[in-house]
UniProtKB/TrEMBL annotation:
<dbReference type="Pfam" id="PF01740">
    <property type="entry name" value="STAS"/>
</dbReference>
<dbReference type="InterPro" id="IPR002645">
    <property type="entry name" value="STAS_dom"/>
</dbReference>
<keyword id="KW-0597">Phosphoprotein</keyword>
<feature type="domain" description="STAS">
    <location>
        <begin position="3"/>
        <end position="109"/>
    </location>
</feature>
<protein>
    <recommendedName>
        <fullName>Anti-sigma factor antagonist</fullName>
    </recommendedName>
</protein>
<comment type="function">
    <text>Positive regulator of sigma-B activity. Non-phosphorylated RsbV binds to RsbW, preventing its association with sigma-B. When phosphorylated, releases RsbW, which is then free to complex with and inactivate sigma-B.</text>
</comment>
<dbReference type="InterPro" id="IPR003658">
    <property type="entry name" value="Anti-sigma_ant"/>
</dbReference>
<dbReference type="GO" id="GO:0043856">
    <property type="term" value="F:anti-sigma factor antagonist activity"/>
</dbReference>
<dbReference type="InterPro" id="IPR036513">
    <property type="entry name" value="STAS_dom_sf"/>
</dbReference>
<comment type="similarity">
    <text>Belongs to the anti-sigma-factor antagonist family.</text>
</comment>
Amino acid sequence: MNLHIDDYKDGDLYVLKLAGEIDAYTAPQLKEKLLELIKTEGIGVMVDLEKINYMDSTGLGVFISALKTANETNRSFKLINLQENVYRLFNITGLNEVMDIDNTIRGGK
């Protein structure tokens, strides 16, 4: 399955709505778009993962890079609406402790 990325600006915040899977095949596309938006001056980024049903360690790497870039550029970066199986990856790795993740966890399929 592919990754579909919709983005829009809401005030001074960019919102990315993702659908599909984040894996070695789709991660480069996401990373390019995400880092481009984070580097935009005065803009924060919120990523909606509600329709992401699968993510592997490559996806975690994308979000680690995004967090690092956000911290370096003093931008806000937040993940929202994670499916339970996707949130589990952040929890197991401890990334839920260092990333801004909305506490609303969605159930699986």
